Amino acid sequence: MAENTTLVAPVEKERKNPPFILEVIVRVVKEKPLGTIGGVIVLVFFLVGIFATWLAPYHYTYQDLTAILQAPSSRFLLGTDNLGRDLLSRIIYGARISMIVGLSVPAITTVMTLLIGGVSGYFGGKIDLMIQRFVDTVMCFPGLVLMLTVVAIVGPGLMQLVLVLGILGGLGGGNRVVRSVVIGIKQNVYVEAAKAIGASHPRILIKHILPNIMAIVIVSFSMGMGGAILAESTLSFLGFGIPPPFPSWGAMLSGNARRYMFDAPWMAIWPGVCLALVVYGMNMLGDGLRDVLDPRLRGGLGRYGSSKGKKKLRTVS
Amino acid sequence: MRAYAIRRILLIFPTLLLVTIIVFLSVRFIPGDVIDMLISEINVENTMSYEEARDLLRGQLGLDKPIHVQYWKWLTRVVQGDLGRSMRNDRSITEDFLAKVPISIELGLWAMITGLVIALPIGIYSAIRQDTLGDYIGRTAAILMMSVPGFWIMTMVIVFPAIWWGWVPSMEYIPLTKDPLGNIIQFAIPGVIMGASFSGGLMRMMRTLMLEVLRQDYIRTAWAKGLTERLVIVRHALKNAMIPVVTIVGMGLPGLIAGAVVTEQIFNLPGMGRYLFDAINRRDYTIISAMNLIMATLVLFCNLAVDLVYAWIDPRVQYQ
Known about the structure:
The structure holds two protein chains of two kinds.
Chain A: H1 2-31, H2 33-50, H3 52-55, H4 87-123, H5 125-140, H6 143-154, H7 158-171, H8 174-185, H9 189-196, H10 201-209, H11 214-237, H12 249-252, H13 257-260, H14 266-293, H15 308-316
Chain B: H1 2-26, H2 32-42, H3 50-61, H4 67-79, H5 93-128, H6 133-147, H7 150-165, H8 180-214, H9 217-224, H10 229-241, H11 243-258, H12 261-266, H13 272-282, H14 285-313
């Protein structure tokens, strides 16, 4: 029995792993038209971010002082800002920043969520109790307030921002979802079997439990992308995010620019449209992925669902 | 229920203790260069030596005593309602904070009510007409509400009416007692925009809850009795689906009241969020830690209230 599981498990994993992502993508495209549209939007912005250097007509710091606050024209397709910079170019470069934030923040969050939630759920007992009290405490601070305070202490910059958003996200409610799923999984016979043949805790966690929560990992990653970009743009808007001259979409709507918007309304429109579009795409994609991957999570309880709300729902039904 | 209530109330103490420790310690994480900057600002007229200025600042921040003594002193003062004084202008934080509370509450209520008014009908409709065109439109709208950044909509609301009609929302705070109508108009615009953002998640939640309830046996029984759709939905489904909504309302409210940093900033409303934001900008660490403490405590007690109300209104919930 014990030998069987060790023999079967690796073979199955090798065969399953590579096509898993592909299979998910095919299913989303086939079954979820809205999710596919979202995916296409995200892909387009992602490519724009990668190839910004070639796509943008000017560099994001290029100033034409003879063309300040110009309305959209054939030379400057979206017009220029108060420093004579081409808005289209800045928005294209802004896509790069948004994509960096949108990918790296959820990556850090996911790793931390897995570590904290996994350890908490797997070991249980006193460790779980202590970790969960700490998570409770972090969740007491309203998100934006906590981010602002920490960024104010750490200082501005892309690196700092990504780290702060990622780590705070990981300490927050997301690890509760991982925890509750791990508690469910560890009661399975195969985990018991692995224990019986003397597998170490890290081995059980990585080889036996992790593959079973991949669905949740993918879903929470994709759901985190939009939130990360919104958080970054909000902080940049408030002047605590990415410092100038880097063209963050949030920062393009704030500071000095606001004074000139009444004369140059085009400055106010496009960064917001891009933000809304890319976050919308990410949320739609996340929704589609969730429906395909994890029917139990269907319905989206937002941030309330991760801890108390969901626990209650289960007791109710 | 009573045992549960007592247990739940006791559970907030360890969290509250951790909150106070974190807030207290955060003042000690102020980077050294900030301390130097503060010292030079205190000593702007060069009346003191560097050491004198540093000692004065350390005394103000309470950094001149052993850490557990400081913590205890700070905690006993906070429990008595004294949040300390601003590092910048020596004003009492408790007094300043209390003046901001009504503004924040008014804004938060606007947002919450708008959120509910938008989200509940659409969420319910989406559920009872699942997978129809209306449902798709409702769901797409919900995701859209969650995706469009509030600060952008607020910017547009300020910029475009000004260009088209020369109309700008008031940027001076109008007290309710002076000009009730002006006050209501002033709060309605930011409040409704905040509420629209909030309604996205709420709408999805309402839909899920309603779908769950609609699959229950007692709904089938109600249909089998030959009740009209109206009665089935309003009297049987809605009553039960609304219970968890209490959770969202209770948990969302502190965020809407205390977390309106962006809104208060854009519309120049002197509420709690603005107070904190100004403090962060001026690096007034005594205010920052006091406001963090207040907001965390507010969230903690709202969560407690939600859990207790929930246990009280839903007798099916069983607590071991």
